Amino acid sequence: MPKRKICVVVTARPSYSRIKSALTAIQNHPDLELQLVIAGSALLDRYGNAVDFIEKDGFPIAAKVFMVLEGENPTTMAKTTGLGVMELTNVFYNLKPDAVITIADRFETIATSIAAAYQNIPLVHIQGGEVTGSIDEKVRHANTKLADLHLVSSDDARERVIKLGESPEMVINTGCPSIDLAKEIHETPNLDFNPLEKYGGVGANLDWKNGYIVVMQHPVTTEYKESKKHIQETLKAVKNLDYPTFWFWPNVDAGSDGTSNGIRAFRELEQPKNIHFFKNMEPLDFLKLLSNSKALVGNSSAGLRECAYLGLPVVNIGNRQFRRSRAENVTDVSYSQIEIEKAIKMAITSEKFESSTIYGNGNAGTKIAEILATTELTFSKTITY
Amino acid sequence: MPKRKICVVVTARPSYSRIKSALTAIQNHPDLELQLVIAGSALLDRYGNAVDFIEKDGFPIAAKVFMVLEGENPTTMAKTTGLGVMELTNVFYNLKPDAVITIADRFETIATSIAAAYQNIPLVHIQGGEVTGSIDEKVRHANTKLADLHLVSSDDARERVIKLGESPEMVINTGCPSIDLAKEIHETPNLDFNPLEKYGGVGANLDWKNGYIVVMQHPVTTEYKESKKHIQETLKAVKNLDYPTFWFWPNVDAGSDGTSNGIRAFRELEQPKNIHFFKNMEPLDFLKLLSNSKALVGNSSAGLRECAYLGLPVVNIGNRQFRRSRAENVTDVSYSQIEIEKAIKMAITSEKFESSTIYGNGNAGTKIAEILATTELTFSKTITY
Amino acid sequence: MPKRKICVVVTARPSYSRIKSALTAIQNHPDLELQLVIAGSALLDRYGNAVDFIEKDGFPIAAKVFMVLEGENPTTMAKTTGLGVMELTNVFYNLKPDAVITIADRFETIATSIAAAYQNIPLVHIQGGEVTGSIDEKVRHANTKLADLHLVSSDDARERVIKLGESPEMVINTGCPSIDLAKEIHETPNLDFNPLEKYGGVGANLDWKNGYIVVMQHPVTTEYKESKKHIQETLKAVKNLDYPTFWFWPNVDAGSDGTSNGIRAFRELEQPKNIHFFKNMEPLDFLKLLSNSKALVGNSSAGLRECAYLGLPVVNIGNRQFRRSRAENVTDVSYSQIEIEKAIKMAITSEKFESSTIYGNGNAGTKIAEILATTELTFSKTITY
Amino acid sequence: MPKRKICVVVTARPSYSRIKSALTAIQNHPDLELQLVIAGSALLDRYGNAVDFIEKDGFPIAAKVFMVLEGENPTTMAKTTGLGVMELTNVFYNLKPDAVITIADRFETIATSIAAAYQNIPLVHIQGGEVTGSIDEKVRHANTKLADLHLVSSDDARERVIKLGESPEMVINTGCPSIDLAKEIHETPNLDFNPLEKYGGVGANLDWKNGYIVVMQHPVTTEYKESKKHIQETLKAVKNLDYPTFWFWPNVDAGSDGTSNGIRAFRELEQPKNIHFFKNMEPLDFLKLLSNSKALVGNSSAGLRECAYLGLPVVNIGNRQFRRSRAENVTDVSYSQIEIEKAIKMAITSEKFESSTIYGNGNAGTKIAEILATTELTFSKTITY
């Protein structure tokens, strides 16, 4: 019997962390063949060149798809998605996969969904059923309605996908693959590299050995004009605290220009002495960095997922993660320097929290591979009600 | 106060009939300005040049969008959609509408949805919440999840959209605008034109004055390879009955090549003496033709909608309208010459049915315009559960 | 030493005949590897599905590219070209050829040129340096200015390319590969198949054994609105002559709708008893059909190329081949029923002409392969004056 | 008589300077209507937001076209061009201009040419007939072969376009519009603004009042991997000289990443005390800055054009301007710190040169407008030999 060809489309740096353990498990499964497609900002230097880490991790790449229109506004975001549909349609036409995996809810993930569903290729959606604010919310549930098989990350998410009219037997809680990585580093927790030496970056030459925090704040697309203002609140808070800080540049998104420009302008004017900036980091290294930090600040979903498992205090800013399930490690604050400063102070002095498994217990990758190898794959469905 | 600019995207011949009365009502409303975009197969001669009827009806056209890739297979269907996203994004960027309307569930309607939603333009979905087979089913519900306001055609549909997690106050049953046209001709029911003279077409020079049937059968995209076989069953049944028949060519769709080729090949070989073929007809004329016929045969949604109101017997073939609400006028049969023949015979001799209002009572257009003029328009939402 | 990878892009039925012997020679050359890309109308059923013949001839296909926008007007022609640039860029990016071959002057051939030249891949242009009317004229010379190596079909063409500022050592007259096929069938001239049985087609069941003519008339893009009127002149002339005729449907082009529609309307109304219609024919069969005919009528470039070698009388209509080199076998006429009729009558009764080698003597394919294997390939050049 | 609609497509910052005086003259001409399209990098913040200056100068914009694919490599450059063809085709379809103007030789200018020529719109090419290295060389002459009317900048260029087979009466030397601006500021030569205050920028807070130089060095696409190395030579030379320097970031181009990255890395590491960096400047301000400087360094074509008229010493690095006509003000050097340093030293101490009119005497804009208003416009041509 020929192996099932499983095509996974990774379009951005954070999506790679969210799928990496599943990629490994698919690659190692005797009945599966991995077809890895790297697209969008995952190919771009400006967004951290995720493709380099992926290749270094030894995954062979079946196709690379340049599809990001410059401009970083809602118009180019929509056009990038349209271009993605056209490009990925070609890719699937040539690769002829038995199933395609689309990951989560970034705006361009619907391109993967359409290119697969319209060509009658069974579509698997990872990490559906969650709730957030912004355009991601629309995209995620639209992906659900285009997908045939749903591999979700929590019980809460499973229940929601079923309420959306999907057949319960096609909605399986595997946990989130990102937790697999968190588990891996949780077992060997020390920071075995010097971030400054290994990743360069720009900004202050930090003394981080006695404690540091990590910041990662992305623009929120429905508020893109305010991105610059929002990021300034965080910047002022962090500068004011004068505590060693590793700061990661945002992903590509409408408004990232506002966020990036805000950061650049702040650096130029204020030259903060306690912040060092990175573009990107290998997923495992990033988790080690988190695991050894005092807190994560910003609006990254890692704060709700990996950090739940790690028990790390998180200061979650604004409404990007609105209504997504969270464990007790998360403190929500608004875009306010004062609130942010106060919450970071609390987090730095706080103990670690109990490890939570709301997003899985660390074996999502192998579960996903096993399901892909054994479930009957179809491309036609009807709503259950 | 400036008028609200309402942008309506019509991508195909049948969509025009489904929205026409709403276009008129929007155009006539003192607080609304209509921005009509004609795209896709509605611009193409091969699919009946709907644009000509639209211009003749006096609607000014704000933009025309060529986006159909040749090939009529799932691959070109997907690429057409991607191209549509790119093109419609430009159009909305330039027109700056206050709301965009996407109609029903054809594959390319999701392009309208993405281009509007990603640019933070309030998206109104007409005719969501219904159930069918094939790719339309996925597209329709994905449109629902991308849309902010849902103007549905039946109570059944309203209930389903609410179950999909939409706020009840944003889901309004206006009835289907296509019923408005049916009501209009129902009140003046005579056939006031000679179809052969007015529309030309090809094939037998029918004597239709003593009774005729109408056939309209589209390919079903998830079965596109079998389209040719399916259409042959209908062709053989109709030829065998030797009853005067007006037959309409199918819309653009993956597989329409199979259907069209099947019809062409049959004509060439069999030269049926009782069938005359049309490419297209003005919506009102089409309804008059239906209203004066003995039965509609095929898989057009007009059989379930307009014909419910008209009380016309319908022979509905195959699973294209699977699970869509239907009144008692519809007889479902499979792709089988024998079943089709038997059902048509019954229909020809049957009385007309009572008029049913399951898809509205004929004032959908004005209701839609009034709602668009008065509802608060937003582009951000969160699932209700 | 690794083989040189030579990527050839075939975008239409006639281009295949013009390159076939070179494909064979490249495939057989020990130092070359053929990467064959089939794109555009060569993939479409409506234009004769050239891809089927190509696969039947045993050429492995490296990539298929759907890129034709429906509409057949100048606007979709331009957009098809833009889409072609995007698609072919992907293809070359993935195939990494050592050289790309673009063929002649169809509108979409410039897409191949741009996709190669902009990616710093040496570009080889086949059949540059000729002269015609219409948009082809602009495209051909623009291709020349984008290309690095020019393999032309005649001394006249070579001289012109050099005048255009190309280095003489990069401009080589190989003759036209289409002549290689003409030579092949010239040596075994009998018609060894029954066209009606082998190719089906539609229309009259001809008695062709006692003499017939062949018609192939394409729309001329700069006159596309008049295509319908032009084709009617030819149709009336051919019907009037009542001589057995094999007629080939036109290629995709702006205006082909006019031409095709004209033919379809004429067939429906006039039901000519002496014309049989084909969509396509294998290149060798087409040449055998020509070789055994009394004359070729229309505006195909085969009339000037292959028919020069075959010595076949040709009635060349209109200005599509304006100023292209021609031997004495060609009679030029305008779009006039009377002129066409008169010229066909003369041609039918005329003797065959002497074989002319103005477009080569039948070994272009092997010459081309040898040059590709041995010439130094570059992608940078400067005009010679 | 209706005014002739002249559509001008500006795709980048430098193109605006090269056409500005013609835009004014078209706008002011009683028989012409200007349709200005801003596209590509002219819309992007990263490349200096030329669109802001254009709007500030009071030109109404008929359409904005986002078309730049991220990646800045040859592959995205080609895809940007393909996308540009599709987008500009729409724009011209809607604007229905009587003529389209494409400017010079940037890679994406061929998109304008194709979109116009394929839609049978008369195409006017500005600044054809010159000679350089790199992909521009191919693009410029391909534009010539697609264009119908050629408005060139020098006698040398006119002669070359005619040699390329264009009819002499359609090739007119108007001079270069960029010289019109140079003439304008030449007459009022003082620097009437403080560059640091008006344009901000980043880097050292220069004392420029006692003399400064200007640097503008773009990547060369056929050498894009070496861009970083090349720019470092210039950076080291300029830092070493320790002379006040205004440095402009490069345009979008394959390899601009190499150049930009090279500059960024150098800044971070070396923090040069004598360099201030700008993204952009209004064309007139830029010329005033040049006019008051000691020398222009880099590979900008302004060095050969405007600086010829201004008589400013220019150190021209590398082969980007290879073989373009130049006056005596230009010193050519290779990518070598030593050569560059030496040439700058000489330039700083040199006198100004005599003003040269090889690229026009300052009335190109009005000449262009007058020709556009009076020449017969056609879209069909045949090579002259």
Automatic annotation (TrEMBL), chains A, B, C, D:
It holds the Pfam family Epimerase_2. One of its GO terms (biological process) is UDP-N-acetylglucosamine metabolic process. The keyword Hydrolase applies. It comes from the Bacteria. Residues 25-372 form the UDP-N-acetylglucosamine 2-epimerase domain. GO terms for molecular function: hydrolase activity, hydrolyzing O-glycosyl compounds. Its EC number is 3.2.1.183. Keywords: Glycosidase, Hydrolase. InterPro entries: UDP-GlcNAc_Epase, UDP_GlcNAc_Epimerase_2_dom, WecB-like. NCBIfam families: NeuC_NnaA. This is UDP-N-acetylglucosamine 2-epimerase (Hydrolyzing). It comes from Gillisia hiemivivida. The lineage of its organism: Bacteria, Pseudomonadati, Bacteroidota, Flavobacteriia, Flavobacteriales.
